[in-house]
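DOMAIN: structural biology
WANTED: fold as tokens
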Amino acid sequence: MLGFNYEIRNFKYVDGEVSIDINEAERLKDLVEKQITKKTKFFGDFINKCSQQCNRLLKLSKQIAQIKNLKQLKNDELREWFEKYAEEVLKMMPFLNIISIMERIFEEKIREGLEEKLSRKGEADLLDSFLRALIFPQQNNFVIQQLDELVRIAADIQKRPKLAQKFKSEAEDVEMWLKRNEIALYSKLKRHVKKFGFLNMYCYEGQPMKIKDVILRLQELLKEDCRKKLTEIISRKREDLERFREIITKYEIGGRLREFIDYAQEYLYFRLYRLDILFMAGYLVRDFIEEIGKKMNLSYDEVIYVWHKEVLDFLKKGIIPDREEVKKREKAYATILIDGKLTIFSGKKALALPPKKKIKRTKKLTGRTASLGKHQGKVKIVLSSKEIDKVKKGNVLVSIMTNPYYVPAMIRAGAIVTDEGGILCHAAIVSREFGKPCIVGTKIATQVLKDGDLVEVDASRGLVKRIK
């Protein structure tokens, strides 16, 4: 699909964290760089193929969502649809696995080109600020679209003080009142849920967004001046674009370097878009998956932990999965591939896997600036999507990496710090959009910081300092 064959034979998925063997990652990087040398439009082709596959998965998921009378489908019919869906999801995998490799290549190539230009002018110290200024997504992904829409709705509410006062009640009471008294606004919230409902789900986990969830988000936003916030968002985007054009013109950035910058901007959009489509697909087929679970006498929350082969064994042969084993997977599971041989751990065995080596606590740690700013706040360590509710307004969100499911916590946070990632990672993209100080690539933040630590995040210096 990508123009070359490569099979990953060593990887780990433990506690929600995926890691590829370093040697395999380097070999894959070499293969991609060879493709670039042979085919200058490799990245353009990659984006086109990714877009086409996203469209195919989305089209099939919508077809499944429109199936009427799911309860009346026989097992053979369910199996046929399930196999079609599984095949399209599987075809998405190359676009997931290669993305971190492409991130490294983009950053290295652009850094190389800029270093050369800036060194000639004696301005090498501007490199990191130029990288942030030149690389930003040209299109808004669904997360940003949703935030923009919510800020606009909140700004309209604040124009009407009596309506804003109503939003201080309990979310359930606000919903009932809107349904009776503010039909136009209630309808707008219903459209919002229909458009962005999948964003509450991480793959197949979580619950689809409801109007109550939107009201809760609006209540958070209404604590701020949303008209001012909207002006700031528009102004920041305008300034980013002006700064981009200024650098491109002043430093005569063209040729292969400009091509890499353009592709990097597209990549930033597709980096999140491909995940959005996977989550949207899971959202659309939720009823379908739930129906298969009912036939197995499993709840939806249980059936999503049934493996692909077990689903087919049930639909073909009537073999019901071991419910006790499924329950163990709900608590914890890990998959480890060594030399092409896959071993699956669940429950206590997954939890007992060797933990990372302990690192001594330190007062300071450094990383890379992803988004400028300074903030003091209490640390909240978030190691999985199940922990995002720990993060309250003004906390410092500390994670190994972030993903789209973390966004509500990222909005509440005063600053964001991650172990992994570069200037093109998810945390970098979202923090810049929200104007949150962000430091990535610290390597050890989740291990040396603890919940409740008071820290100062000085993103301009790439420094996290523990105060107490």
Q: What stands out?
A: The first helix runs from residue 22 to 38. The CA atoms of residues 23 and 362 lie 30 Å apart. The mean pLDDT is 88.
